[in-house]
Write a structure and sequence with these properties.
31% of the residues lie in helices and 27% in strands. It has a 4-stranded antiparallel beta sheet with strand order 4-5-3-6, covered by helices on one side. Strands 2-1-7 form a 3-stranded antiparallel beta sheet. The radius of gyration is 20 Å and the shape is elongated. The C terminus is likely disordered.
């Protein structure tokens, strides 16, 4: 069985071993190739080669650490929906990227053209967010949502959305 991922004009082929390797790494980025090899009943050299192939194709971009912000003293996270002049979006994203309190940012289509996640040490620090928004160019509107509880955060491969080919 092969699944095909479309990336631009290039089709990326993943077999059952690739999926299982990706699933293991998404669950625990520090899992050893030897452990994966034991579970898949293949050699650790085969896992390493497959990993390098997936990296080379751009399917694996990075292996990262998930932080517990509460332990680090970050009490809250906000989602900020921002509308600015479309010509200022790239500059505004660059400004946001330089801010240590901005966790992620997205260009969007709809009522707002930028959405970003903003970390607060505590909820009395809204002035930090105000100063951040004041640095942005040609902002015409924004809306803030306070995240009260993360319900889930999946790291998944949406197999159901892929074409499946059987051999």
């Amino acid at each position: 069985m092969f699944d095909f991922l479309t990336r631009g004009d290039v089709m990326q082929v993943l077999d059952q071993y690739d999926y299982k390797i990706l699933a293991k790494l998404m669950d625990n980025g520090r899992v050893s190739f030897s452990e994966i090899a034991r579970e898949l009943n293949i050699t650790d050299v085969a896992v390493k080669k497959r990993f390098e192939h997936l990296q080379g194709k751009g399917i694996i971009k990075k292996i990262s650490v998930e932080l517990d912000y509460k332990i680090l003293g970050i009490e809250g996270e906000l989602l900020v929906f921002l509308k600015s002049n479309p010509l200022a979006v790239d500059k505004n994203v660059s400004i946001l990227q330089e801010n240590d309190f901005v966790k992620s940012a997205y260009k969007t289509v709809g009522n707002y053209n930028i959405v970003f996640s903003f970390l607060l040490k505590d909820f009395s620090q809204f002035d930090v967010l105000d100063k951040t928004i004041a640095k942005l160019q040609e902002v015409t509107d924004f809306n803030i949502l306070i995240i009260t509880k993360k319900m889930f955060d999946k790291n998944t491969i949406p197999k159901s959305s892929l074409q499946i080919y059987y051999h």
